[in-house]
Every structure is written in C-alpha cells, then in structure tokens.
C-alpha cells in the first residue's frame, strides 16, 4: 500500500484509535459517545448534552453555550460464533461439521469533540470519531475458510461543522467529512488442505463527504431534529495475492507474482435520522429515533487488477438491503448533579438469509442500555454507559467452485451465526 497513506492512517489510529468491530447494521458503528450509549442512542439528532452532539446533528451546537470539549472511549466485546456443515455433489450424502468461535475482535473506540458558540446565531465545532469499522477472522481450523476467512474495514473521520440559529424555533447545521479508510478481505483453503490463500486484497484511501442537520424547537418542552450524512466512496488502492490471481496470470501467459497492484471500490453508505425530545416533567424526559442506512448500495465486492484483466474480478456477492433502527430512551434527573439514562433499540438486519455471509454475519439486534451523567462542577461533568446486545440467531448458505485435484468442484456451506455483544463507555466533558 502507499506508504504515505499508511503513515496517515497509523497517525490517526494513535491519536483516535481505529474501530475493529461492528455493532450497528453491516459494518456501521453507532458508538460515537458514552452519553448516547447509556440511552441506546435514542433521540440523538435532537439532543444537545455536550460537544459530541454535532456528530449526529451539527445544528444542535446552537444549544451549547461557550466552548465545550468532550472526549471518551467505548469498549466493545463481541461474542460471535459461526457453525454449520460442508457438503458437495461430488460426495452425495456426506456432510462435514465445522465451527468457528469469537470471530469478531474486541476494540476500543475513542472520540474527541470541541464546539464553540461564536455569538447568538453562529456556532462552530470539530469532531474526530468513526462511523464505520469491523474485523472478523475465522481460524484456519474452520473448514469453510474458502468462502471467506477474514474481513477488515477501518476508518477515522475528521469532521468540521458549522451551525446557524435562524430564530427561536429553527436551527440548521452542516459539516464536511474527511474519511481515512483501509481494509482487507480474503478467502483461503482450510488448514487441512494446505491453508493457501485463494484471494486476498488490501488497500487504503481517503475521501470526502458531508452532513446536514436541522432542529425545530416546537415549544419549550418538545423538539425534533433531523440529520443526513452523505455516502463516502472509497477506492482502496493496494495489492492482491492468492492462487486465483496466480491462475489468472498464467492464463495471460504471465509469470505468477507475490502481489498484483489493484484497487477495491467500497462505499460507506448514506444515513439519515429523525429524532424527538420531550421534557415530560421537570425531572423526566423521553426521546426517540428512527434511523435509515442505504445498505442497498453495498451489492458486491470487486477487485480491479489491470495487469491481469480489463474487467473487475468478483470477490464476493453481497446484495444487501436498506437497514432501519428504532430506539426509545429516557433521562431522569435524579438530583441536581446526577442524571440517569436508559434506552432500548431494535436494529434490523441489512441482509436476507440467502445473502448472509460468514465473514460479515449480519443479523437483527436488540439493544438494552443503562447510563448516568454526573455534574462534578459547573465546568466538568462525566458520563458512563453500558449496553448489552442480543444478536438474533440467523441462518446462512453459500456455494463456491473450488479447485480440488485439478477439477472445479462445487462445495456448499450451510449453517448459522449466533452471538451477543456488550459495550461499556466513559466520557468527560468540560465547559469554558
């Protein structure tokens, strides 16, 4: 890969950390703040607790006074298993069971935000966080690695924002998003058959996106917020390797090479959120969100390797569908210093059973969250959140043509994914 881009990505990783687990739909991340984690990220586009609010709606900065800084991290511990059996028409009636445990890696997802109220109308801010990332790896003892043995997407986002208060009821905001991304995908023969890579592709890229937000203060106790984040088109430039590409080289009368220069197009999809906030009593507030993600744009993974073929090489059919998330939460001001939070959310799967793959074992998820905020002083406050995610058991079925004993032989995998996830986050906020 390009050394300058690697250096840039590593520098960002040391400053912010890079997420390696996916907890929302697909390889999307919701974990942008410990404040929101404690309420299952319900009502985020209509909430203005601290400077982190700008990441989900820049218009909310008009509700923040002075200069504010928020920073924190969320620890994610996924426990995802895949099990099933292999079969082939070449061996009718014969099935071979296999399984892989804990295929998704744990991660720490950090964040940093700063906002500044310029005057009564204008506010500016800067967010540094991540919205997409994942890492799965199926060990060599798993017999289905030919369908995919690893998938990794890492991203860091730098997001300057601006907001304007039109009047007492309406605010708008906008931001530019600079995204640094890298990833790799692969498939290999299982260890018992040699463990050789069949296809492996890695690369990195940077790209630009944008976001828009708005807030409507219906009255003193009720507010609605809206946010739209654009798609970001990455072209991960790097190299490919594996037996399949060696075979393509031989067909072009080329000598096999250790690596082949190429690229992989990857779109981080557009998202939208509409949220509401309702102050029911002096102590109790309710909030809710409806989120949409344009996962139907993720239909396949293709590698472009000009030295081997003028047409893209299909790595994996995905055929995803749009995803929806529903969340409702509550905040209770227990004392002047202590606020208690809770929330529940349901995240729909971005893929049907027939298109689910073992490297991204996407399924429905139920979130249960608890959190708290403590006002240490007039300037300093702390937030903490805990979430447990129930991942719905889901089936999967895949077929690949494999070179066995010099012949192309179809091999089938039929199985299911099971699992759960827990998350814990902390955050500090300071006002100047």
Can you put this structure into words, describing what you see?
By secondary structure, this protein is mainly beta. The chain has a single domain (3-431), classed as Porin, CATH 2.40.160. The protein is 6% helix and 57% strand. The protein has 3 helices and 20 strands. It has helices spanning 3-16, 34-37, 243-251; strands at 67-87, 96-100, 107-117, 122-129, 134-137, 150-165, 170-188, 197-219, 222-229, 232-241, 260-268, 271-279, 284-293, 300-304, 313-317, 323-333, 338-347, 365-375, 380-404, 407-431. It has a 14-stranded antiparallel β-barrel. A hairpin with an 8-residue loop joins β14 and β15 (313-317).
Strand segment count: 20
Query: SSE order in H/E notation?
Result: HHEEEEEEEEEEHEEEEEEEEEE
Spatial shape = elongated
Low-pLDDT ranges: 1-23
Task: Report the average pLDDT across residues.
Answer: 86
From the N-terminal CA to the C-terminal CA, the straight-line distance is 43 Å
What CATH calls the topology is Porin
The residue fraction in helices comes out at under 10%
The CATH architecture would be: Beta Barrel
Q: What spatial order of strands do you see in the largest sheet?
A: 1-3-4-6-7-8-9-12-13-16-17-18-19-20
Helix-and-strand structural type: mainly beta
Whole-number tally of structural domains: 1
Instruction: Provide the CATH top-level class.
Output: Mainly Beta
- Determine the CATH superfamily: Outer membrane protein transport protein (OMPP1/FadL/TodX)
Quick take:
The chain is mainly beta and 432 residues long. The protein is built from 3 helices and 20 strands. The chain has one domain: Beta Barrel (Porin), CATH 2.40.160.
